[in-house]
Predict the structure.
Amino acid sequence: MKILSGNSNKHLSEKISKYLKNRLVNSSIRKFADGEIYIEINENIRGNSIFLIQSISSPANDNLMELLLCIDALKRSSAKNITAVIPYFGYARQDRKVAPRTSISAKLVSNLITKAGADRIVTVDLHAGQIQGFFDIPVDNLFATPIFTRHIKRKIKNKNLICVAPDVGGVERARALGRKLNAELAIIDKRRSAPGKSLVMNVIGNVKGKICIIVDDLIDSGGTIVNATEALKKRGAKEVHVYVTHGVLSGDAVEKIKKSKIKNLVVTDTINISDRVKKVRNIEILSISNLLAEAIKRISNSTSVSDLFK
Ligand code: R5P
């Protein structure tokens, strides 16, 4: 078994490689003057099972293309099989036609990855679980919930907790966390007028005097989480803590979080987080590396991955 890293999140790949005591494959990923990506694998990988680690994070188009070209290079170098480990599966939000004449990017990206030659996908907290069905190859969708549960139990002593789904799509995720924490569930009725613009219409559930735990798959512009926090505070929430798997954090998201009433925002490192963000008072990073490394080990040994979540 060998591990190859793309450029999107070298830091995470190095941690995984350290955990598995298996060094990263020697490769060169360069760009031509016009921006085209050029991949070269500098060692023999014939007959090896390869785990290629690459998130489809910003710059999403470059990172996606790099992922596809790496798979192609591995296939053409006679790898025995290729597992695309995609900690953050970008382009997943467009998973259905939300209006006439729109595309379904999640399906197109799934087709591209399969066509390039991947034999299996490992990812974390897919935007919607049913995206697994866009692939005709095995998909292991890992969850950050156990990492969040341990952190909440260690850090938040007040037991008057309520888990909050910031929109209807997040209900299953919030309910799963609520079960582990023995906490109630509240749901925010969110509407979007345009991508990146969200509006809270209503809060379903009583949050008065409670410690609210908002859980979501990703934070992009920060609008969803900051608006949800405002709405919860207005309805008497004591504290708002936020747990999000993928810290996309685009535009002025970090500034919004700094200024908000969020007590603590916890994100994982499925996307590389800059040192500037790491220094923000109310943002904390938890690593997903051991979970991914353990999943890779189990896939490689053909043992159960779902046992990781029992
Ligand atoms: C939406 O369905 C997602 O789960 C996130 O809530 C959303 O994409 C976050 O975006 P933003 O931070 O831009 O509001």
The CA atoms of residues 251 and 284 lie 19 Å apart. The radius of gyration is 20 Å. The longest strand covers residues 184-194.
